[in-house]
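Supplementary Text 2. Reproducibility record for the structural model of the 173-residue chain.

All settings were left at their defaults, and a single model was retained for analysis rather than an ensemble. We include the record here because the model underlies the residue-level annotations in Supplementary Table 4.
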Amino acid sequence: MRKRRTCYLLAFALLGTAVVFADQLPDAPERWFERARGYEEARKVQAELGADMLLFIASRSPAGPARRSRQFENNILRHRDMRDFLSHYVVVKLTIPTERETNDLAEEQFRVIYGPRVFVVRPGGFAQPLGVFERDNDRRTLLPVEEIQRRIVRASSPKYGSLLPTMLEREDK
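Retained model, structure tokens:
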């Protein structure tokens, strides 16, 4: 009886340690993965780290989507407040139209034929689309960095909820 109780205590202690480690946010690679080949490599990294992926599908054409894609990349993804925030995500950029494999990936797996489109992809493969522009009649306005960060966290795995208090502290300053 005593041995069994010791085994249970040891098992619970180990399980508790695993839960603590599972809730920690991973440090993802700083580099962005690009194209279909990069997406496949990013999926492997994602599986190793248990990290969520931020997938950005950009357009080269037509003019409107291409302009909005550049606007999102330059004003949001490259914003100084996003650098630390994205350090916990595996970031992938697919630019379409481009080579056949990338076009097929965007269209078949994510049902996207032009960008900009943004998804949070959880380790199990579930992809949650995010709206990053506000639509007012025919005008589209890019949402503020803080709102996009909130939307990313809401679409992410539960362990990413710990990013919200950090964001709120920054807003108070």
